[in-house]
Design goal:
about 20% strand, binds magnesium ion, about 260 residues, single chain, alpha/beta, elongated, seven-stranded mixed beta sheet, 11 strands
């Protein structure tokens, strides 16, 4: 696979991006670095992905992150990436290496925990899963009528509090005290690494919120068809690998050349 498969404007954008002082490379996982497969548990990154991301993360002033809708533990297991790569799960409510909450968010988290404990008290088969930035209420093991009643109490109570973000799933409702979208996650990451420019790559509608946060020399790359706010587009995960390899080559060259030469 060679760089010629990439659109010429994208090649130019990668070249400019590689020259930024502090670079953040952020990407979605499923459908972007790994081909979509029927069984989500069978998803694996393309063979060269781990090597190229590990090499990029090892360069000075260069940070790499995956931002996924998957739970953090899932993402860590499936992606097989070293600890230098930042992992963000659940669309931004779980950060590897921890997430420092603001005092207001911590206070809200504590208040949520008390209220949810009050709601579930006395019911069998209902449990709380307390995570750093969210609390999930699981009703899978409860009687269906009990589960429905608990979910309704959460929906009409703390779900409506200011600053609470709600995600509903099968027999679970999760309340987060931080913004849970990929755009907000991207902002947290670039602040954390002090990025002067960012590339974000993704294939799904949830990635659009991240594309919308890009500016300046940042580049957004949409994978596949469909409307997108991204400035560039590639066809499939193998082309994403080409983008990453091109960026690695140019970043290495750039870092070997003192500024001003
Ligand atoms: Mg995806």
């Amino acid at each position: 696979v060679s760089v010629e498969v990439l659109p010429v404007e994208l090649r130019g954008a990668i070249e400019r991006l590689a020259r930024t002082p502090v670079l953040l490379i952020a990407s979605d996982f499923d459908g972007t670095l790994s081909p979509i497969v029927e069984d989500p548990a069978a998803a694996r990154p393309l063979p060269e992905v781990v090597d190229v991301l590990t090499a990029l993360a090892g360069l000075p002033d260069t940070a790499v992150a995956l931002i996924s809708g998957r739970a953090l533990r899932d993402l860590a297991e499936l992606s097989g990436l070293p600890a230098e790569v930042h992992l963000v799960g659940s669309h931004g409510s779980e950060f590897s290496g921890g997430l420092r909450l603001t005092p207001a968010a911590e206070e809200l988290h504590a208040r949520l925990r008390r209220e949810l404990q009050r709601i579930i008290a006395g019911w069998d088969g209902v449990g709380l899963e307390v995570k750093p930035a969210s609390i999930a209420v699981h009703v899978r093991r409860a009687r269906p009528d009990v589960g429905a009643q608990v979910i309704r109490a959460v929906q009409s109570g703390p779900s409506r509090w200011d600053g609470v973000e709600v995600t509903e799933g099968k027999a679970v409702i999760e309340l987060a005290v931080v913004r849970t979208d990929k755009g907000a996650a991207l902002d947290v990451l670039r602040q954390r690494v002090g990025a002067t420019a960012t590339v974000f790559i993704g294939d799904d509608v949830t990635d659009e919120k991240a594309f919308l946060r890009l500016r300046g020399h940042d580049i957004g790359i949409k994978v596949g068809d469909g409307d997108s706010a991204a400035s560039h587009r590639v066809a499939d995960p193998p082309q994403v690998v080409t983008v990453l390899k091109t960026l690695l080559d140019q970043r290495r060259t750039r870092l070997d050349t003192p500024p001003g030469r």
